[in-house]
UniProtKB/TrEMBL annotation:
Record bears the keyword Cytoplasm: no
Family membership noted in the UniProt record: Belongs to the ROT1 family.
A biological process from GO: 'de novo' protein folding
Alphabetical list of InterPro entries matching this protein: Rot1
Native organism: Naematelia encephala
N-terminal signal peptide: 1-18
Keywords: Endoplasmic reticulum, Membrane, Signal
Compartments it resides in: Endoplasmic reticulum membrane
Cellular component per GO, a single term: endoplasmic reticulum membrane
Function: Required for normal levels of the cell wall 1,6-beta-glucan. Involved in a protein folding machinery chaperoning proteins acting in various physiological processes including cell wall synthesis and lysis of autophagic bodies.
GO molecular function, one term: unfolded protein binding
Descriptive protein name: Protein ROT1
Pfam families: Rot1
Length: 236
């Protein structure tokens, strides 16, 4: 047991050395890996297929981030937003984006998405248009972040605080190396100037509500953060 823990620690240290220049406060282990607030949600896999404008809905809500040692990120979020004036009007938002990371001198972290690849889908049973999927491109600044060890699970925990004070739910390390889609532009015009075909797909709202029968509670602050990301919504 002791040896297993030691070798794990050593391999984490090896990764940490290859990672960007972290401040000592964040230096417990490398940020490289896949982090998730809820085992149901992870980056990579089928969460989003950007070329098909398609999401594969997880069984529960949550958020997940992945980072690589060479400066790429992927972000996956699936959230419910309660409606105070009408409790039956719960809005579901799922989004995904990937791109590059900037570690700033003041200890903050900036996510720079590949603009053509991000996708967002909003399902609102009370809206005129109940199911909307569109592009998503949200550059985000996290003013501070840190990695600690959770006393109960003995797992690494990543905490991200957004520039506007919003605290992201704590995320646990679930994979290293990270589970991610290829860390390059996947749709639109890529680095070699070639256009990748885009296809739209619609998903069945009734099926979606069936699958998400066990909503996780989310705080008003988390709900607010969703609103900030909605841009240029178009009908699917
Ligand atoms: C991070 O920790 C390693 C190992 O303790 C140390 O060698 C390195 O200098 C630290 N880096 C920073 C930026 O504090
Ligand atoms: C969701 O749960 C169902 C039934 O338990 C399972 O078959 C399916 O693989 C799960 N989906 C995901 C994405 O985990
Ligand atoms: C809450 O639901 C009402 C309909 O009952 C709707 O008019 C309103 O826009 C919703 N508010 C939010 C924040 O979604
Ligand atoms: C930290 O640096 C980033 C990038 O240069 C900048 O956008 C941000 O405003 C800075 N934050 C503070 C608190 O100075
Ligand atoms: C650009 O996309 C084309 C078509 O999918 C692919 O063959 C090519 O390798 C891509 N180039 C780069 C640099 O990603």
């Amino acid at each position: 047991m002791m040896i297993a823990i030691l070798s794990l620690t050593l391999s984490f240290l090896a990764l940490a050395r290859a990672a960007p220049d972290f401040s000592s406060a964040n230096n417990l282990t490398s940020i490289a890996g896949t982090w998730s607030s809820n085992a149901a949600v992870s980056t990579g896999g089928d969460f989003c297929t950007p070329a098909e404008m398609k999401f594969d809905y997880p069984n529960n809500t949550g958020i997940s981030y992945s980072f690589t040692d060479d400066g790429f990120f992927e972000e996956a979020q699936y959230r419910y937003t309660a409606n105070a004036s009408n409790p039956s009007c719960i809005q579901a938002t799922i989004f995904w984006q990937h791109g590059t990371i900037g570690f700033n001198d003041n200890g903050s972290l900036t996510l720079y998405p590949f603009g053509s690849d991000g996708r967002i889908q909003v399902q609102d049973p009370c809206a005129a248009v109940t199911n909307v999927i569109t592009y998503y491109d949200q550059q985000t600044l996290y003013s501070d972040w840190g990695i600690t060890v959770d006393a109960q699970t003995a797992n690494y925990v990543l905490r991200l605080n957004r520039f506007d004070g919003a605290k992201m739910p704590p995320m646990y390390l679930i994979a290293r190396p990270p589970n991610m889609l290829p860390t390059q532009i996947l749709t639109g015009v890529n680095a070699s100037g070639q256009t990748v075909a885009r296809k739209r797909s619609t998903s069945d709202v009734s099926q979606f509500w069936q699958r998400s029968a066990a909503p996780e509670r989310i705080s008003a602050r988390e709900g607010m953060m969703l609103g900030a990301g909605l841009v240029g919504v178009a009908e699917a």
